[in-house]
Amino acid sequence: MNSVLVTGGAKLVGAAIARRLARGGWKVVIHHRDSAMEADALAAEIGALTLTADLADPEAAEALPARAAEMLGAPLSAVVNNASVFEYNTAATFKVEDWRRDQAVNLLSPVLIARAFARLLPHGRSGAVVNLIDQKVWNLNTDFFSYTISKIGLEGATRMLARALAPSVRVNGVAPGLTLPNQWQTDEEFKTVAAAHNI
Description:
This protein is of the alpha/beta class. The chain has a six-stranded parallel sheet, sandwiched between helices. The protein is 47% helix and 15% strand. It has one domain: Rossmann fold, CATH 3.40.50.
């Protein structure tokens, strides 16, 4: 049976990805940082496993594929790097700690997880990594400044990893369009912005 680790898989887009993969017959490992209740409920619903890690910690991020494989009793077949931090700031207001956190979780951790996953693949087996990027990379605006820069970096890292880990690991990026309102938007504001950035 194919198996997959979905980071940030307890809620929102990550949960939708986990559900779809489970419906397709995949054994899913749901990663979360502090969403234990949601992760456990989803795991019970789809027959998944769960694990906890703070992806701002590089060692914790790099250990994730091995921890998932140990839980499964076999190496992973794929990884979906979905987890991210998404907090509002601008070029004028971001703090150094915002920058470091966004780079660590949104850029460095997917790279470390992909590398660790590739190292664990048995000889002769192929695997896949999918990185969740963001439509903001192509629809630049100045809000969510440090987040957007981290996703711009991830888009480039995805291209580099695709070359570096081939042919045994296929690496792709997916940039969903506007999917959900952020915590500051009304439904009406979200609909207006989504209509203006329909890609």
